[in-house]
């Protein structure tokens, strides 16, 4: 049955509109704190009870409001933040004029405020949309707002709230994001349970970093790098976490746009793309970045909660973020998060669940324990020839790959002595170290140069890990993970320069596989050819491989093709794309393929290296961007400071 059209009751209209602005207690806190920031506050205190349902109190020392302003502030669409009425040039956090009337429509709202010029303050109460009278009240400069019994006027909304603890955590997260955006303002959050959350006002040139460290944790400062870049009216600045410093969720990614904290899909997608080949896909970076631009270049009026924005040039903003992060990580080079060393030291301490340390040590004899000859340089038990740092050219004429024959790495052949702890090494622990009258001076070791952050190789453990000595500690390197990154970066450089070096197989290799897999490889053959992998159909259920990248010489063709198929599944390369540029969709998919196949050209775990080869690997790591992690996001090395090692042995 049709009923006549009528106007809704104004209070009902306000309650319906409040659902867009005040979804939960955290939304109310966000709106009230943003108002305080716009009022020029330098200190903002928030108090909550029952997760914000029973009480929300926000006190600031901002400009305050007069009695007339107070009466008007709780009216719909009344604001002081659009003086010219121009929605294309919004330079404040709040501007809709909906926050206070929306909160007052679904709760009991009490406001007390005083300006610096007034002798006394004013107070006003709005109860479930019913506005009271403005009365005089004692008040310090600033504004005090109390919200009690939130959603009491809309009981159905209460059923959708989460537990008090969950709502309190949401409020704390929102306040942290505002604190990151405004480092020079003091923020405090207090509740009936738990310790208060307080962020002191920061000053100085490093205010942003100190606030980020306070919000993201004490390890962020030492595990991050500063970033700054500008392009065509957009400026990007802040600090980004190293690829080895990551989290299991993306809630530690902080973006601000003209001082406004936002959670925008475009920005988050750009960050994921920038870290794509330096971090595992199930991990998330930690960072705090600020975008500043002319307000006319960004629309902040696309969502009532104002957490999403729309840029006039979204492609430009995305390219700026990706380029800035890539360039910053490239300049960082071989550097890892400080948390890696902390985890390693924790694991080594006696009593730790993963520790296998014993009160006493005994010599172990075995070919897999240590390789090289033994010596005792000052400060560290050293295995391997003296530093003998080789120039980067000894790392291979092909631009960073080992080229020595396989026999050079196989120390089990006839005529090659490998005593380990069995002969010379074992003598270090025997009672008769040398015949009477022998020269007992320590063997000379080449001093460490100052310009090698990863130090000089001293040992290879279990034919997998390289031990290097630096001036103030040691570095443990995973040789396979490190070389995988070097191969990958070299292949990317070759592809960008016009083509990956390849070599034809003397006898083309026929690989049989499932017919559907062979069809997918043949369909992707034109793009795979750009990666140096040339193949063609060879009957039903088989492909013929004619050429392979030079860097993968000697790799198993079947395993290589299996990895390529896995990469095709993950990247969708066979779908094709007209954009083959370095940063385009196809370019990123080609990089994903290269990341998979570079593993086949890397130094394998279990392969013994000569001292000069180990040193050449270290030098190449220092000169290669993103060398701190492998293609899958795992760290390639861990650095331990000597003072931390000394603490393990009670020397400090």
Features:
652 residues; alpha+beta; Heat Shock Protein 90; Ribosomal Protein S5, domain 2; formyl-coa transferase, domain 3; 9-stranded mixed β-sheet; 5-stranded mixed β-sheet; elongated
How does this structure look, described?
This protein has 18 helices and 28 strands. The chain starts with 9 loop residues before the first helix and ends with a helix. The protein is α+β, with helices and mostly antiparallel strands and 652 residues long. Strands 1, 2, 3, 4, 5, 6, 7, 8 and 9 form a 9-stranded mixed sheet that branches. It has 3 domains: 10-199, 2-Layer Sandwich (Heat Shock Protein 90); 208-332, 2-Layer Sandwich (Ribosomal Protein S5, domain 2); 366-430 and 446-652, MutL, C-terminal domain, dimerisation subdomain (formyl-coa transferase, domain 3), CATH 3.30.1540.20. Mean pLDDT is 79; it is low at 354-434 and 572-583.
How is this fold's topology laid out?
Layout: H1 10-21, H2 25-38, E1 43-49, E2 55-60, H3 67-73, H4 99-106, E3 108-114, E4 121-127, E5 130-131, E6 135-137, E7 142-148, H5 155-158, H6 164-181, E8 186-191, E9 197-199, H7 207-216, E10 224-231, E11 234-241, E12 246-247, E13 253-257, E14 260-262, H8 265-274, E15 284-285, E16 287-293, E17 298-299, E18 310-311, H9 314-332, H10 338-348, E19 370-371, E20 374-375, E21 382-383, H11 424-427, E22 456-461, E23 465-470, E24 473-478, H12 479-496, E25 502-512, H13 515-523, H14 525-529, E26 534-537, E27 542-549, H15 557-571, H16 585-597, H17 611-622, E28 637-641, H18 642-648
Helix pairs in contact: 1-4, 2-6, 8-9, 12-16, 12-17, 15-16
């Amino acid at each position: 049955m049709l009923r006549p059209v009528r106007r809704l009751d104004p209070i009902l209209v306000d309650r319906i509109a409040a659902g867009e602005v005040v979804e939960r207690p955290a939304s109310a806190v966000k709106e009230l704190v943003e108002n305080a920031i716009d009022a020029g506050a330098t200190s903002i205190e928030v108090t909550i009870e029952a997760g914000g349902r029973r009480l929300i109190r926000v006190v600031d020392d901002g400009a305050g409001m007069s009695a007339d302003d107070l009466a008007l502030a709780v009216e719909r669409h009344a604001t002081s933040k659009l003086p010219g009425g121009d929605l294309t040039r919004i330079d404040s956090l709040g501007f809709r004029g909906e926050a206070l009337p929306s909160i007052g429509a679904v709760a009991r709202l009490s406001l007390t405020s005083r300006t610096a010029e007034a002798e006394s303050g004013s107070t006003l109460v709005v109860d479930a949309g019913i506005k009271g009278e403005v009365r005089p009240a004692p008040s310090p400069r600033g504004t005090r707002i109390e919200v009690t019994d939130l959603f009491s006027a809309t009981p159905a909304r209460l059923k959708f709230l989460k537990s008090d603890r969950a709502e309190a955590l949401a409020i704390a997260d929102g306040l942290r994001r505002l604190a990151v955006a405004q480092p020079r303002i003091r923020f405090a959050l207090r509740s009936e349970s738990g310790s208060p959350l307080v962020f002191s006002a920061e000053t100085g040139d490093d205010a942003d970093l100190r606030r980020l460290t306070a919000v993201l944790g004490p390890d962020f400062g030492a595990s991050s790098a500063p970033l700054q870049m500008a392009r065509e009216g957009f400026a990007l600045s802040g600090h980004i976490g190293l690829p080895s410093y990551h989290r299991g969720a993306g809630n530690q990614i902080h973006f601000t746009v003209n001082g406004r904290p936002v959670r925008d899909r475009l920005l988050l997608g750009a960050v994921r793309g920038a870290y794509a080949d330096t971090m595992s896909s199930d991990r998330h970076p930690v960072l705090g970045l600020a975008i500043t631009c002319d307000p006319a270049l960004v629309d902040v009026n696309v969502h009532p909660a104002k957490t999403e924005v729309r840029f006039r040039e979204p492609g430009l903003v995305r390219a700026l973020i990706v380029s800035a992060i890539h360039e910053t990580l490239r300049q960082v080079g071989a550097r890892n998060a400080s948390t890696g060393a902390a985890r390693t030291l924790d694991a080594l301490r006696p009593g730790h669940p993963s520790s296998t340390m014993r009160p006493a040590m005994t010599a172990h004899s075995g070919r897999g324990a240590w390789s090289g000859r033994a010596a005792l340089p000052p400060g560290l038990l050293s295995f391997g020839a003296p530093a003998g740092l080789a120039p980067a050219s000894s790392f291979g004429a092909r631009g960073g790959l080992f080229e020595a024959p396989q026999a050079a790495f196989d120390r089990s052949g006839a005529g090659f002595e490998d005593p380990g702890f069995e002969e010379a090494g074992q003598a270090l622990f025997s009672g008769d170290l040398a015949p009477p009258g022998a020269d007992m001076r320590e063997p000379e070791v080449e001093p460490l140069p100052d310009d090698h952050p990863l130090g000089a190789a001293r040992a290879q453990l279990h034919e997998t890990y390289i031990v290097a000595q630096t001036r103030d500690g040691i570095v443990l390197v995973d040789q396979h993970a490190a070389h995988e990154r070097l191969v990958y970066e070299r292949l990317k450089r070759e592809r960008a320069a016009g083509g990956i070096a390849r070599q034809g197989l003397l006898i083309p290799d026929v690989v049989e596989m499932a017919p559907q897999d062979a069809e997918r490889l043949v369909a992707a053959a034109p793009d795979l050819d750009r990666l140096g992998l040339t193949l063609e159909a060879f009957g039903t259920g088989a492909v013929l491989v004619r050429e392979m990248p030079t860097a993968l010489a000697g790799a198993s063709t079947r395993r290589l093709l299996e990895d390529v198929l896995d990469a095709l599944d993950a990247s969708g390369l066979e779908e094709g794309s007209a954009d083959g540029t370095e940063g385009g969709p196809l370019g990123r998919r080609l990089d994903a393929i290269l990341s998979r196949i570079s593993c086949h050209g890397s130094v394998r775990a279990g392969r013994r290296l000569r001292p000069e080869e180990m040193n050449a690997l270290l030098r190449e790591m220092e000169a290669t961007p993103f060398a701190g992690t492998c293609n899958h996001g795992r760290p390639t090395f861990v650095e331990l400071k000597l003072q931390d090692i000394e603490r393990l042995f009670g020397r400090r």
